[in-house]
Amino acid sequence: MSSGISVDVRTSTSAQRTLIPLGVIFFFVGMSVAVVGPFLALFLSTEVRAAPALVGAFLVAGPLASMVSSSILGRLSDRRPLRRKLLLTAALAGCAGMIATAFIREYWILLALTMTLTAVSGSLFPQSFAYAREVLSQRGSTRAAMATSTLRMVFSIAWVAGPPIAALLLQAGGFRILYLTAAAMYAIAAAVVYLRLEEVSPPAHAERPPARRAGPVVWLTLAAFAVMQAAGTLNVQAMSLYLGHVLHAEVRDAGLILGLCAALEIPLMLGFGALSTRYPLHRLIVLGAALGVAYYILVSLVTHSWQIAALQILNASFIAAVQGLGISYVQELLPGEPGRAATLAANAFPVAALMAGPLLGLSAELGYRYAYIAAAALCVLGFLLLVGTAQPNKTPKTQAQTAEPEDSEAASLPPRSGGSAPPGPLATFTDRHEPEPPHPR
After folding, report:
1. 0.85 cut: is pTM over it?
2. 38, 62, 203, 239, 354 from 56: Cα distances, Å
């Protein structure tokens, strides 16, 4: 037993040493995106003095370039031991791009930057998810979904703090200070990658699950994620307009409501991550999609702003399930290719942004209540696509049993004091591997 305990402690400590730095990277990169993203259109129109058509072209070109870059790097990263190098390169590219943007005011140079340096920096998130999954897999852990959900939660924390900090920075020193601060955050992320992360080699060819073609199930799942995230993007873009023009509320209420949603996402992502160790990911994501349908239908019917605030528990649950667990689910569908799977799932975000823009323009003509009717329709479509792609997957318990037999009675008891993982915020990601007699479930 003492040997099992020492192995358990070493496994837990090793995983924490990797996942805590990843959490730091997610926070600072998330903060960089959160301070820059909401004010990009304002920067282009006021500082660069770009025409509305050029602003629109910029906002489309950036996501498309990021998709192409992340897809290429995602495929490359699953075949060679260079994931740490890619993380470092992406962080440094983001830092260089933010420094250049702080001083350059020529539209075409900025467009070139966003299609090169900024596009490469966009691979940080999918590569970080893939890195976490590979590390946990090599440590024998079956809680990759929990780790992914918690890393996504850190990104939500950054978005709670980022926009208010950005407003203060703009007041203090304008866009130059804003972009230099974003560059400093990317620099911190690069330093953490360089100092704290080790290179992770992909499994040997003989041990690696055979690569699968992204068949209909994968593409329909990705389509479901894209349309549901388009609904979420439309919600963010239309909120202040809906409150001001339709409900005749204070526009500042939009910031309070969106901040409330981001705050609620934090515990809910942990909760859904914990549920992922007991229930299939597909079932949890379908539940989240159903909650999203309910949220958008109800918001389209409200008459007061406080009702929207009360409904944020549904919205936060929808985001926590679909966005918190979506990448892990696609990685399950494409085993052996965590980088490619994470990139495909992450690419749903720019696709969603491209779909949401025209719908917002249409709702400006018809009335902003129609933005939420359209969002409800998108969520219904995503829900139906997910229900139609149900697969006979193993439950997490069955997967854990296959990887490591354990006694069912012992598993139901509190962890032994001698065999528990060292305290730490990410201790729950690691599994306890004490030799116990197998017991069929």
Report:
1. no
2. 14, 10, 43, 20, 10
